Please model this.
Amino acid sequence: MSQRVSERNMPAIELFGEAFHPAAPPDAAALRSYRRDRVRDALRSHDLAAVVLFNPVNIRYACDARNMQVYGLHNPCRYVCLTADGHTALFEFRNCEHLSRHLETVDEIRPAKAWYHMAAGPRGDESARSFAGEIAALVRERMGATPNRIAFDRLDMAGAAALAAEGMIPVDGLALLDFARAIKCADEIKAMCEAIRACEDGLSRMQAAHRPGITEQALWSVLSHANAELGGEWMETRLLSAGRRTNPWYNECGDYVIQRGDLVSFDTDLVGRHGYSVDLSRSWLTEGAAATDEQRTLHALAHAQIHHNIDVLKPGRTFREIADAAYRLPERFVPRMNRAIAHGIGLCNEYPLVVNSEYFAGAYDGVLAEGMVLCVESYVGEPGGRDGVKLEEQVLITARGAVKLSAFPFDDALL
Amino acid sequence: MGNTGSILDTEPQRDVHALARRSPSVTLAEYERQPDMKRLRAYRLARVQDELRKHDYAGGFFCDPSNVRYATGTRNMSVWTSHVPARYCFVPAQGKTILFEFRSSQHLANGIETVGECRPFIGWYYMTTGTRQMEKAKAFAATVAAVVREHGGGKNHRVAFDRLDPLGLDLVRAEGIDVFEGEEVMQHARSVKSEDEIAGMTHSLAVCDAGIARMRAALRPGLTENELWALLHETNISHGGECIETRLFASGGRTNPWFQECSDRVIRPGDLVAFDTDMIGPMGFCCDISRTFFTEPGKPNADQRQMYALAVEQIQHNLGLIKAGVGFREITEESFVLPEPFHANRYANVMHGVGLADEWPVIVNRSDWEARGYDGVLEEGMVFSVESYVGATGGSDGIKLEECALVTRDGYQLLSTFPYEERLLG
Model:
């Protein structure tokens, strides 16, 4: 067992006029202050008094504090409040102050008020009032008596009512956070590349374990093991399927025993080292039978689709322009094709979502910008068909176009 | 519990491991008693609907994946959807549920009999709606209102939501819907487990115990914390489990204070290694067990043995308070009080409910009653994680132990079976 992430040579990348080596270690302090400043700037430009964040992914972005992340995804047990004057107060889970004392992005740490039902029981309203009173007092102390608009990434009913009683106006803060998170600096790319390399080490181990007779979940456990061993954090989904279960997409891994000649398709969807997401998809042929013509066709189309679409991604292009220029799959694959051409990625899936023209009427427009990282996706499988191919690559948008950050090879047997 | 023919029959229940020793096989077999999934889903849906009717709600909208799983028996990208509200279910006060499923994955609920209808969900989280957030949120609110009118007989507009952010809340209210707190409904519904659920939990805990055993067998100086912790991840996923909620695995000095997360630290001889599994295992059952190991070569020092003895005493004392009919406050008042210098670093609670995640209720320590305590009554069929952390303020290490216990008429049954560490007991 090796706990070290493989080295990989990567060419220098130019971002915002400066070249850097993506395989170099990130400067953690620089990364933290860049991200915190992005949130602060957004706060000021929206004329808000403060932003309060509950989602651990947003807390991580704003100040880099990390604690029981998956638990925190569904239990609002800790939060951070950034006021527009530049002060950051972290409200941490009881007895966990020691986890964040080293962070220069955190000005003070206080115990969080828990008002979700499990923790507060019948005292939820009392606890929510105490939460709201403390936030209101903090905002008044830092910002004066007048400013009262506070953005939230999540706010449950009791808290919203208690804040209103304090004269504060809660507003939706997701747009603000998603815009802040969308543009990455070089240190974020370095951190992300380290996470990608660790994920790719996991994929190599999966490839070595892939053989007829292994179950889907046993194969998936190899990636889960590698992610945890190499310092990654969690897996957002369990999207690995084989054989007929690859079509339609979204079947979750189970105890199906993988057979000779089965396609195995998966989507990594993991949160890896430094908390950065790695969202790559591949389809592999299981040994013991030659690829069928249909399997090769599906793979060739998916491969062509993502590479055509990667070339279409240029800063300044609107999402509609990208949709118009995007690869067209043959008609029989349209019903089950991926809705998205690409989606943003950072600490998890995020803004923007660029969708195919078939679905554009239900989607939104916007402009691609330098510094965004996108996952470019394809799913090719027809209704009634046996197999489905899922491919996905992670790319950085630079002034010159999209640069691949992932380097894991495609399956030779299908190319 | 204890009906004739139940897979949980254990007579007499003097052996606190009797139930755990009978954990069922879950590979499909027609020739022996096994958990009945259809009956499990029916039981859970009925529990939710009882709670809804108790509050005179027309129904409830639920988005937390553990709530969706509980109410409908469906699962889809559980970790991602626990922070991105990409699917909801509607549970009417009676009748079948409506699943508002993530687009493109409607087929996952095929054949699940608790789901009367599956519709695509109109998401209004920013990533998918961008500049059109208000439009999508309005469409969501209109759907909610239409469903409620259909199921409330045109009169009852009282609806519970487990999660509804301010924009949606305002729009749903503007449709004339009275919105109430839904976590209370779900947490109370989930608290009492059926025999099928207990059978599922014992299976999930068997997988967790297997992961712990692999970590114990692999423990030696030179490994990193992450390398050992990864074994639990692998065991869980390869047996069909779901995810691990935290990374509470620490060694040596990192065991005190508690809550330091797993790292690349290299484990050394004489280190204590302490962890809390917080594992969502097979069938979505949460296995929340803690153990502390000693790393050989060498022998535990007197402090390590003293702390371990205290932690075992605390757990055993608090387990002994468990019995159907006992009040939360009674448990708080009778609970073990750690002496100084260990009191300041005590664990946040004496015990907490557990099922598809950590659940209601939380029963706090004596000194925390004023600030955070609340009362209630233990019922037969509740399951608790009983906690201990023993580490001196400023001390160089600490002990974490935790057991999983089912509340019975006469006392408790331990669902976790992993033994304590002989070397630290000695």
In short: The first strand of chain A starts at residue 13 and ends at 15.
